[in-house]
Amino acid sequence: MKKYFLIPLSLACVSSAWAFNSSLKEQNSLSDFIFIPKEKTFVGQSELVLRKSEYDLDTQRRAIYSSTKNDTIFKETLEYFYAPRIGLGMSFDYLLSSETEITYAEMSGQAGQTSKTKASGLGDPAITGSYLLRKQTGNIPTIKIQGALSPKLAKNEHSSLNGGDGNAHRGGHLLNANALLSTKYADGQWRANLGLTYFGEQKRKDTYTLNTETVDSQILVNLGGGFQWDWTQWSLGVGLDLIFAPEKKSTLSRTESTESGYLQKALSVKPQWNILPQKLTAYFEYQTISTPEHEYTERTSGVQSDYEIVEAGGKIYSMGLIYQF
User: Fold this and answer.
1) Distance (Å, rounded) from C-alpha 162 to C-alpha 188?
2) Cβ distance 313 to 292 under 8 Å?
3) pLDDT tens profile 242-269
4) Which are the contacts of 246, defined by CB distance < 8 A and separation ≥ 6?
5) Cα 98 to Cα 106: distance, rounded to the nearest angstrom
6) What is the phi/psi pair of residue 108, to 5°?
7) I need a labelling partner for 222 at 20 to 30 A (CA). Which of 143, 149, 282, 313 fits?
8) Taking a C-beta distance cutoff of 8 angstroms, is the pair 49, 75 a contact?
9) From the centroid of its chain, how far is CA 113?
10) CA angle in degrees (0–180, nearest 5) for 323-47-43
11) Please, are residues 270 and 237 in contact by the beta-carbon 8 Å criterion?
């Protein structure tokens, strides 16, 4: 038995006990949590992401299989600000490579055997927008609202056949809204964010069996915060994100599946180099994701099977450039 789980990974922010110089700072830099661009300019971000996610599927504390997935993704975002407060743009992801390896355990009846599947291609693009609600005055923070709409362009395709190929489409619509607050000081800044992400009903086609799985819509809630220390040309940020994932249901042929809700934690560390503070910034980010043990059930013709998803988590390495022109 092989099953794919959608374990969301997100950017993270973590708290710290270190103190900032309380005097405020007005200088604007691309490395800021909230960068305020010039009028009639473009702000872009080019990023390469290496992502590893893994989990084990058990039944009655006995392993069925272990799954490891490695992704390499190129991301590009470009937004035009015809006024410093309002921006509109587009973003896209290109999945350069994705490989999922399943290693079967004794309870699967295929102990010691492995299977590998691949995926690649252009993902669903998104229309992005942002609005600067207010600029910092005194200790009252800057507030920015961000949003993204990514319509479904095609079904998600994967193959359950060993060596099979898939695509990078999500298989459903996506809508994201995020509120970001930040205050800058002489030698650092903090931020807090609250985000909602709506995943519409998804269609996932197995190109080997030709069966299509339907995944019900769901809303994820992201609550995060972080600190950043700033020097003349360098900055260092740390953060924590909490992602609330609700119960998720899906249907494949005559089988109904339910994955219980969970609270996911993501920690991050992000050094940045301000090559030209308002023109070009380079960065590297490391994130570690942890997902608690939670339940997964399958019901076929009235017969229910119970499982546990354990040892779930992942790591993300990101590097890129942010620029204004």
Assistant:
1) 50
2) no
3) 999 999 999 998 999 999 999 999 999 9
4) 218, 219, 220, 261
5) 27
6) -80, -20
7) 282
8) yes
9) 31
10) 25
11) yes
Is residue 283 within 8 A of residue 234, CB to CB? The reply is no
Q: Tell me the domains of the chain and their CATH numbers.
A: 41-324 (2.40.128.100)
pLDDT confidence band for 109 (50 / 70 / 90): confident
d(C-alpha 248, C-alpha 295), whole Å: 11
| Encoded amino acid at 14, one letter | V
Q: What pTM, to 2 d.p., does this model score?
A: 0.89
